[in-house]
Specification:
Radius of gyration: 22 Å
Number of helices: 10
Largest sheet: 4 strands, antiparallel
Shape: globular
Number of strands: 9
Helix content: 40-55%
Structural class: alpha+beta
């Protein structure tokens, strides 16, 4: 098996790294670390992300997208600060869901501007009483003339406070009675809804909110086609999202490892550099092993998707392991730095909060373990 990147992949990674270093990291550094970015900041980030295909990774070239291999998508995502990942990934997933699951009119209306980064996208699935089980949603629409009136709440929704369009799952009335799970595109310019910022433990610069729909009037034309593939479309996008989140954790852990390796070569105790102590070398070796194994698991899951190999278990495994392993690697880096590792000045304590925050999006550790267990046993622990 050849693990060497191709020339095209190396160029892509280099371009992403340069964009991050020259444009994105300075923007993030100039803003408050505990405050969500403004809409204008998000638009600027999306415009830069579009230059390396992150706003349209899964949309084919004939549709105006990059048509990237998922492994290449992961390589680029790893170069971006996780704050950017939590902005770009839900935006790209929303664009992908509209492109593959929207009507021609919906695609024409939203997709080109979402790809350009001149519109901001969000997806609202999670609710106060419904997280890992998308079939348990309570947000409901009722017909009123040619419109559907939406009432309900969505929680922990990335980009919701700054978005232009939010793709929501909703209970839609059937003509024969009862409800079906459907998807609705709520365009903020024509259908008002409230979104309140939620303060978080880590990655606080990424806008996150709770959305409330109160008699929100949405045109019938914004209801996505009823192809009965709503749950499947959500699942397919989650498959690549999970190892991508894992690579956000790898980004943090690699940075922590680099900081620790540099520190042990300059910090002295007992008349010698602390890198000369065996226990420090063991910590560094453990950190590198955690980072490398996490990276390779995520690459493996993304490569499986590219080769049409069933990746449900691989994707769940990659994200769950990578976040936990990188959490451990950052903790080791803090230990290597001693008291300095606890200082706000150094930034490792912020990274420790950030990596813990990554354990929740796109599947909690417990749910991901059960998805992997289902692949191993063929038995569904969720439903009979």
């Amino acid at each position: 098996m050849d693990f060497k990147l191709t020339e095209d992949q190396m160029m892509l990674v280099d371009a992403a790294r340069k964009i991050s270093e020259r444009h994105i990291q300075p923007l993030l550094a100039s803003r408050g670390k505990r405050t969500a970015l403004s809409r204008q900041d998000v638009l600027e980030i999306l415009s830069k992300a579009a230059d390396v295909g992150l706003t349209s990774a899964r949309i084919p070239e004939e549709g105006g997208g990059m048509g990237m291999k998922m492994l290449d998508y992961g390589l680029v995502m790893e170069q971006m600060p996780p704050t950017v990942g939590l902005i770009v990934q839900p935006h790209e997933a929303t664009t992908t869901r509209i492109y593959f699951g929207g009507s021609p009119e919906q695609k024409s209306k939203f997709v080109p501007r979402l790809i350009e980064g001149t519109l901001i996208g969000a997806t609202g699935s999670t609710e106060p009483d419904c997280g890992s089980d998308p079939r348990g949603i309570k947000t409901t629409g009722e017909w009123r003339g040619d419109d559907i009136i939406v009432n309900g709440r969505k929680q922990w929704i990335s980009n919701s406070t700054v978005c232009d369009v939010i793709h929501i799952t909703c209970r839609i009335p059937r003509e024969e009675g009862g409800y079906r799970m459907g998807r609705i595109l709520v365009d903020r310019s024509e259908s008002a809804f409230d979104a309140e910022e939620v303060e978080m433990h880590g990655l606080c610069q990424a806008p996150l909110g709770e959305v409330s729909f109160t008699d929100c009037r949405v045109p019938r034309s914004n209801i996505c086609p009823d192809d009965e593939n709503t749950a499947r479309l959500l699942t397919i996008t989650w498959l690549a999202n999970r190892p991508a989140v894992g690579l956000m954790a790898v980004h943090l852990a690699q940075k922590a490892l680099d900081m620790a390796r540099e520190y042990v070569g300059v910090r002295k105790q007992f008349g010698k550099h602390i890198g000369a102590f065996q226990s420090i070398q063991v910590d560094l070796a453990d950190m590198e092993t955690l980072v490398m194994s996490s990276r390779l698991l995520c690459y493996n899951a993304l490569s499986a998707i590219d080769h049409d190999v069933r990746a449900n278990g691989l994707s769940a495994m990659a994200k769950r392991y990578a976040v936990d392993a990188c959490d451990r690697a950052i903790a080791l880096a803090m230990r290597v730095h001693g008291a300095m590792g606890l200082s706000a000045e150094l930034g490792l304590e912020q990274m420790a909060r950030d990596v813990k925050t990554l354990s929740i999006p796109d599947g909690t550790p417990g749910i991901l373990a059960l998805i992997q267990g289902r692949e191993l046993t063929g038995i569904d622990a969720f439903r009979s």
